[in-house]
Every structure is written in C-alpha cells, then in structure tokens.
Amino acid sequence: xxxxxxxxxxxxxxxxxxxxxxxxxxxxxxxxxxxxxxxxxxxxxxxxxxxxxxxxxxxxxxxxxxxxxxxxxxxxxxxxxxxxxxxxxxxxxxxxxxxxxxxxxxxxxxxxxxxxxxxxxxxxxxxxxxxxxxxxxxxxxxxxxxxxxxxxxxxxxxxxxxxxxxxxxxxxxxxxxxxxxxxxxxxxxxxxxxxxxxxxxxxxxxxxxxxxxxxxxxxxxxxxxxxxxxxxxxxxx
Length: 237
Hints:
Layout: H1 3-10, H2 12-20, H3 22-29, H4 34-61, H5 65-88, H6 97-101, H7 107-118, H8 125-147, H9 174-186, H10 191-217, H11 221-229
C-alpha cells in the first residue's frame, strides 16, 4: 500500500465524522443561522489567504519542474478564487486584499493555520503537501457525499460544498496529482519521515472537523478568555 493510500484509509473515520457534523448536516437541511454562516465565511476566506503562503512554499521546495508547474497552477487558481470571493463580500466583510490581511482570526482557525505553516520550515514537499492536500481531499469527498443527499434548493446552502471547478477531479485532477507527488517523495524518505507526513495529513483532517465545530458554535477568543477567567475546566468545543 502506498503512503497516500495509507493516508486515505486511515482518514476514513475523520471523513465520516465530518459528514455527520451538525454544520455539514445544517448545509444539507438549510438550518444554519446567518451568524453561523458569517462566522464560517469570514474565517474560511482568511484561511484560504493563509494557504497562499503554503502553496508558495511548495513552489519554492518542489523537487521537479513538473511539481513546480503544478503548484504554480494551483496558486493561480487560489488567487483567482480569492479575487472573485472578495468581490462578492458585503462591505462589513473583507472586500479587498488589504482588509483580508486584517481579518480577525479565531482560535481553531489560528491553530489550523499554524499547523500548516509549521510544515514550511521542513523545506520538504513530503511534509508540507499533506497539510494542504488533506483539506482539498476532504472537501472533494464531502462534495461527493452531499451529491447523494436530499438537500435544500436555496442559496447559500445550494452552492455550499459544490465543487464547480473540474480541475480538482479525475485522474489528472489536482488531488490525484498531489497524492502521486506524495508517493514519489515518500520513495526517497525514511519510515519516520513517511509517518510524520501521514500524521500531518490526519491532523489536518481532524482540524477540518474542529473548523466546522467552531463555526457551528461560534467559538471566539472571547469564549476562551471567559473560560480561562472563570476557571472553566471542561472542553470549550
């Protein structure tokens, strides 16, 4: 079994947990509040902005010309997506590159961003790529899951987790090529390095669940501060 196959196999429980999360179910049923949707929208666009640095690192540390070309293509898609997203945002939300940089980052978003950014210092595609590819894979799989659900036919729920860009799918799609790169890099790596790459992939899958959870419960730094100052010892999330 290749390293990417191990990653996908061991990530199945995380995928199932994401499918069952109340936020994802709320997308299907159209039961999420405007506050929950706004929290997710604001935090997600800031997260997508953070991913630009991760993709740039992949470009910098790519080991073949084909890798670098693929990562450049993915970066262009990311920047175009962010540009179009910002144009759609209301005035109260980030609406240009400058305001996006100053979007308040809530706890789980920051943890996830730092988890991904920490891999950059390895200067290794094998360690950086799984932190990023996990979210791509999970969203694709959630999109497939939602296709088989009876979901509300109204916006913004109708378009949620509906992958319109076909560049991600199929044998030549981004995610398949990412897994192929992971397997190619794993052939040159030690067992320890392979296990660390897999652990990073699985942690990203776990943090995706917590991202939904934070959006569903609207978890902010104020909640964490209140819990600390009142001596709350139970989990916030």
